[in-house]
Amino acid sequence: MRGYSPYGASGLSTQNTPFTLALIAINFVTLVAVTFRLIDPAWLALTVPGALARPWTLLTYPLVSFGIIGLLFYGIWIYFIGSALERAWGTVNYVVFFIAVSVVSGISLELGAMLTHSRLLVDNWLPMAAVTLAFCLLMPYVTILLFIFPVQARILGWIEMAIVFFTYASRSPLLGFFALAGCGVAWLWINRGIAAKSTFGSFHPRPISRRTSRPRERLPLMEKINPLEWWKRYKRRKQFERLMRGE
User: Fold this and answer.
1) Taking Cα atoms as reference points, which of 1, 126, 139 lies closest to residue 80?
2) Is the pTM of this model over 0.70?
3) Helix or strand holding residue 111 (H, E)
4) What is the number of alpha carbons within 13 Å of residue 138 lying toward its C-beta?
5) Residue 48's beta-bridge partner residues?
6) DSSP 3-state assignment of 226?
7) Which of 143, 145, 203, 230 could connect to 195 by a Cys-Cys bridge, CB 3.0–4.6 Å?
8) What is the mean pLDDT of residues 201-227?
């Protein structure tokens, strides 16, 4: 991990984020291929139960998008959140984490679907919930612009888990708990040092204390482009100018 924080204002650079860019590109390619019937989506998408019959889909379902709107939001989200983790941990370590949460999420839903006698298609957003939670656990006091509403990351983490739970609990409440397995892995990864104990010594970033997690100088770009922040900075600047003029 570099000495500076990758979650601050420099967190939007695409430098050293090949995996994040590859995920976006592959999702675009699969969307085009599925749209023009060039491939059968059943060979890449994860349908549970059925993962045991096609185990490779545990790795390929994060690569499949079925709509341009879904791909747009997926690409934007992983660009902001996933790229920050990739810069923090390094590409190899981030890839291992992403594969782990993808596979665990898929296997957990496979078991949940069998127990609840449900059948459903698992979309590529499920691993992103775990990625988002990992980011929120590392930087709980970073403010993220959610549409037009500024939200602290620690609150966003709860929102993300609630979305996952209720999305799958609509079929069965038990299935909602199984869907949170990837988020559980992310929590263990950050709080119990699984990554630090692995062969990838730099996997787990140093703990970030509450005192150092709110640096005033390290505002994320998403906060800087927030219209509400623009207005606040404008008012503070005008107050300072009036003060300097002695008004």
Assistant:
1) 139
2) yes
3) helix 91-116
4) 24
5) 120
6) coil
7) 203
8) 48
Alpha-carbon gap, residue 206 to 208, rounded angstroms: 6
Task: State the architecture of 9-221 in CATH terms.
Answer: Up-down Bundle (1.20)
The model's pLDDT over 25-44, given as tens digits with 9 standing for 90+, comes to 999 999 999 999 898 888 99
Cβ atoms of 196 and 188 closer than 8 Å: no
Cβ-Cβ contacts under 8 Å for 195 (sequence gap 6 or more): 89, 93, 97, 189, 203, 204
As a whole number of Å, the CA-based R_g of the chain is 20
Q: Quote the mean pLDDT of the chain.
A: 81
pLDDT score of 224: 52
29 forms beta bridges with none
Token look-up 């993808």 returns 102
Q: How confident is the model at residue 199 (pLDDT cuts 50, 70, 90)?
A: very low
Best CA proximity match to 137, nearest among 74, 201, 187:
187
Cis omega before residue 49 (within 30°)?
Answer: yes
**Which amino acid, residue 242?**
R
Report CA-CA distances (Å) from 213 to 7, 176, 190, 209: 10, 31, 15, 6
Tokens of 179: 């869907």
Q: Cα(95)–Cα(15) distance, rounded to whole angstroms?
A: 16
